[in-house]
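> @MW can you paste both from yesterday?
MW: sure, first one:
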Amino acid sequence: MDHDIRYNQTMIRYQDGELIETTDDYVKEFPLTVIVNGHEFATIICSPNNLEELVLGFLASEGVIFKREDLLQLELDDQRGYAHVKVTTDIEQANYLSTKRMVASCCGKSREFYFQNDAAIAKTSMSTIQLSPSQILHMMAQLQAHSKTFIATGGLHNAAISDGNAFYVHRQDIGRHNALDKLYGYCIKRHISVRDKILIFSGRISSEILIKAAKIGVGMIISKSAPTTLAVQLAQDLNITAIGFVREGHFNIYSHPERVDGAPKQLHASQQCRK
């Protein structure tokens, strides 16, 4: 059962030279401990909605499962904050339990953990999707329109997965990685192919977010914010089209522009787009 991710409470606001007692909405922060085959695997700090999708997507991102059939059982005790999971993988033999993990809502795990473990899971995209500039702008406008809780609280990351026309699903979470894992879990649960899909994202495209996109298997990620240099390098290496600063009728293409109608087939170092 999903919980309301918004909470309303009395607070004091300083405005126009006065201190005024009023109320405000803010987002809930929820610890979910994932128990895999009887072992404590990780604690995810998240928003308490779409938790089954979150667990599915997280386990797939970690390489614990590769398809829906690898999951034998998933029971949520969302009152106490536990997800009890049985999988076909022998996690003890695979050395998944060497370190207990706290997956924070702000930045996920450390970069060291990502680069030690993610190379085998991140996929080089084989996507042949082709989009027009107007489709890219429209998708970001749709994401903004769906982000009602963010508008009320200012405390969430928003993400969606699309085929370039309609959204398959929109998800939100206090953790940017969690929002993407919820999308991944949604697709795994419903056996939806992600090869020719696009991630639409509200936050910065960091290297960790780009790796998450590669793990999911999409060929394009678009964001209203900026990419980092390492994210662009990884996007180039993994054949992913990374598009940032999608706002107010413009955007920047940082890698593999050939998937956008009218763009050159490749970028040269001296021609890479800047803000």
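MW: second:
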Amino acid sequence: MPVTVPHDLPARAVLEAEKVFVMSDERAGHQDIRPMRIAILNLMPMKVATETQLLRLLSNSPLQVEITLLHMSSHVSRNTPPGHLESFYSTFGDVADKHFDGLIVTGAPIERLDFEDVDYWPEMTRILDWTRSNVQSTLHICWGAQAALYRHYGVGKYEVRQKISGVFTHRLTGAKSPLVTGFDEEFLAPHSRHTDVHARDIEATGAVEVLAVSDEAGVFLAATPDGREVFVTGHPEYDADTLAREYRRDSDQQSDVAVPAHYFPGDDPTALPLNRWRGHGHLLYTNWLNYCVYQETPFDPNGV
């Protein structure tokens, strides 16, 4: 089944070229089925690229998914044309009285800032608090995961000496969760961040379970037992070349940037990287949609 997007959203053309099943909102209106209402709070600078990555993963499901794109009203995006935001995005104020089956909160390249120093932190806290009454399940990515762990449970973040960047091997912890149904006992996933959250701090909450960890990159996946709050510290949505583009961007700004670990063949930054995490990325999002959203949300979304 398709993911439903506006017919002129740029990501639609990319996904259709990949033979991904997307449906226009006009056609979806004639379907006699209630779609899953999923909002994406896009905090990333390159919003079009992030839209495409997430929509690709959300489309790999038998469910019809209706997307609402959100951006912060208290922050001015410098990397996305204002016309794109005006055409395809809403703000929290536009949806604060609505209920959603699921919400994805993306990462943001601001993890070195204290949470309270982020210009949109007051708005962010209002959104995070709102999710507990108006969203069936929220999936938080990277900085979004750190922000939610801090806001909801007081879990702090720690700056690391060297950026955690690369593709790392992870293992399941043994905690039982449908989110990891079908996962290999060891799997790969990308990370890209300057800060870390510690498994012991998460476990000390008594409310969040650590589901997958890496010896090198730390916690990858954690969630509440009911699946209403999911925390992903890495980036399974990344394209094959995303880490390469980040590495070249960072190298242009400073000279001592480390090559992303276990990413380029032979650790040669001129070599073409391969996507070795795509399967588990799709599986994670499909499991989230199925087990945490579809099987738990009420038929009337206003009853969340």
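> thanks! Residues 3-303 form a domain with the Rossmann fold fold (CATH 3.40.50.880).
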